[in-house]
Amino acid sequence: MRHTPGVRASFWRRRRVPVPAPQRQPAEVGPELPSDATVNMVLDLALRIGEVQLASGAAAADVASTLLAVTAAYGLPRCEVDVTFISISVCCHRGTAASPVMSMRVVRSRGLDYTRLAGLEALVRRVIAGRTTAEEASAELDAISSAKHPYPRWLATLAWAAMAASVALLLGGGPMMALVAAAVTAVVDRVGRILNRHNLPFFFQQVAGGALGAAGALVATATGLVPPNQLSLVVAAGIVVLLSGLSVVSSVQDAINGYNVTASGRTMETLLMSVGLITGVAFALRIGVHFGIGSTLAPVSPLSFGTVPIQIVTGAAAAVFFALASYGQPRALLVAGVSSAMGVGAYSTLQAAGADVLTGSALAAVLIGFCGQLLSRRLKVPPLVVGISGLTPLLPGLTTYRGLYQLTVQGDVAGLSTLVLAMGIGLALAAGMVLGEFLAHPVRTRLGRLERRLRTQN
Questions:
Q1: Given its phi and psi angles, is residue 192 left (phi above 0), alpha (psi -120 to 50 degrees) or beta?
Q2: Does residue 340 carry a pLDDT above 70?
Q3: Which parts of the chain span the membrane according to its record (predicted)?
Q4: Residue 427 CB: number of other CB atoms within 10 A?
């Protein structure tokens, strides 16, 4: 079949490859961000703030929310925060036209300094309110992080000793037991200070502290300063001092909020420190049995309504001295004492009314968490001060000692159930504290709205 020229031209016009249209440059997606130098400075500032919080025992959710608030205050609209037990990572997304910026910081040291934590909280409030630049905030954070403790170290030692004396009185001991507990605790604190200078792992410091505390109580019993049936009160006071400051509440809070890695790390640290303490106390008790130093368990006398005022006073004193040993300012001491007085008062009243120890511990912790959140907001004190200080007098020091005594001295397997009960009390305190803080959040929000409304009307 023959094709005419017109037909062939029409065919090739249909087969011609189309010429692509000129492509347009893609438009940038996302808000305009500050310069790279500003982004790096803001991320570094946020990470350093989070490092101080995490080192002080703050919950991972609180650290993440603080970092997001700081980055948003300086114009970084979309950031992702990842908090683990030893590190913090922040990633700033800059749209589709620029690569994200990611930075990480490792938390290498931990310790309690309520003055430093209070200064940090005040700085964060000014940053969120827009009253300070990133350069000014970075310089102020340097000053806060490098500042010396507000009190000398010997005053902290005296505070630990006074706390042990208060706990001994709280447990039902007399003035001599309180004095012996204070002296033993002071020695343990100074020895722990020396061991810390030599960078001895904290686990072995807990072993040494538990062994020294129990050995000092045994010596006091052998010399007649303390009756054999009161030795347990001296050792229990030392156990409470050595258990204070552990991140039990933060571990439970992290687990509830979904930060399982951080919760696992903190739980493992708490268990390891507790095992170290138990090992030291058990070792000293075995040595006492070998040398024939007799001791018996102090009888557990039920609380009555008449002893509630004494419990409140001694519990509040223990919390105040703990906050002082952690370098708290006078306002922090006040909040710690009030929160502990409420918690110990509730626990003692429930015990006198016939409630079991787990129920009493949990309900007292709920009250501490709820009222402590409101007090901390009103007086501008870090909530961590309330959580740790308020629960300190309720720690199961005497129950832990009874379990160790039953296992090491009496050889009774019932000591295992007593130690499990001590763990249950710790978990009840932590869970109750978290629940109280959760219940207080809507109340704090309404109070904040009411204050802003009244401020606007005036």
A1: alpha
A2: yes
A3: 158-188, 200-225, 231-249, 270-293, 305-325, 332-351, 357-376, 383-401, 413-440
A4: 16
d(CA 107, CA 253): 19
pLDDT band at 35 (very low <50, low <70, confident <90, very high): confident
DSSP 366: H
Which letter, b or e, does each residue of 90-101 get, where b requires 16 or more Cβ atoms within 10 Å of its Cβ?
Answer: bebbbbeeeeeb
Residue 144: pLDDT band (50, 70, 90) is: confident
Angstrom CA distances, 55 to 109, 274, 307, stand at: 7, 19, 38
Hey, is 106 helix, strand or coil? strand
The reported pLDDT for the residue numbered 90 is: 92
Q: How far apart are CA 150 and CA 140, in angstroms?
A: 17
Specify the residue for token string 């039953």. Answer: 406
Alpha helices in 198-259 (DSSP H): 202-222, 231-243, 248-256
Distances in whole angstroms, Cα of residue 232 to Cα of each of 125, 307, 323, 426, 433: 46, 20, 25, 19, 28
Quick one: which of 102, 27, 401, 21 has its CA closest to 239? 401
106, β-bridge pairs:
87
- What does the alpha-carbon distance between residue 433 and residue 440 come to, in Å, rounded to a whole number? 11
Tell me: the pLDDT tens digits for 371-394?
A: 877 877 777 777 777 778 888 888
Burial class (CB in 10 A: 0-12, 13-18, 19+), 456: exposed
Residue type at 134 in one-letter notation: A
CA pair distance 264, 255, nearest whole angstrom: 8
